[in-house]
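Issue: copy button drops trailing tokens. Both records pasted manually instead:
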Amino acid sequence: MVEKQDYPQLELFTQDSNSQHYKPRPVKDPVFLRIRKYEKVILLIMVLALTSIISFSIGVENGKRVILTENNSGTAESYTVQVAAFKNKGLALRQAQLLTQSGMAPMVFAKGSYIILCVGKFSNQESAQPLLIQLQRTYAGCRIRRL
């Protein structure tokens, strides 16, 4: 025989009054109401973090496109002759003074941990070729590069 229990047992299935078959009990509460309060907070934080990451990555991709279009449609003077690369800024400035005294317009800028010394601004590589040949007599490692 079945003994009577002191505590109520929750039923997952209810017995159909017309037949002896059991049918699933219908869920009355929506899913969002069955989630506990702290779980809602955790889900909200996860959604905000995911949204932040996605919007940041979209912004980075848009920024890359803007930079690429600015570089491609930039100035007509996009080539120069790189004379040398120095680790010491003083040496680079001294060589820039020597080039200035010889009538050229040098540019000195930092690239990573090096100081790059360049001369001239040209619209294409062919127009920079004569200056490259002239500078290779003094500076053996000259090359034409983009600005």
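Record 2 (pasted manually too):
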Amino acid sequence: MTGGRREGRLLGVDWGERRIGLALSDETRTLAQPLTTLTRRIGKRFPMREFLTLLEHHAVTGIVVGLPLDPEGAEADAATAVRVLAADIARHAGPPVELWDERLTTARALQAVRAMGGSTRGRKDDVDALAAAVLLQHYLDAKRGSAL
């Protein structure tokens, strides 16, 4: 995030056609935790008003949006929609927005739930928020020690 503050909460966004997982960092940008999942009906707009309310409520100072890439690192089909979403968020929200590679975040979230002996049946919202936390934690870990 160019010109962003080094401290303050970051919000991670794991975009999906039906559900958008959200995660929040702590003030020191050390740990990410699942926050919630926004739901939208296919063909409907992103729930921007609800999203902006969350940004304000949690005093978010930066936003990290997961960019879907294929295994080789090229942009996957959904990348165009995510880029449009990120630009829309940047237009409406105050904090800077950065795109970040989200490869395998949902798979890692599912693996973590299963490793703890849990079931993902009927918990898609939880998994999407956890995938956002995996994405945001990866970003935090990669940026630790560098200017955010």
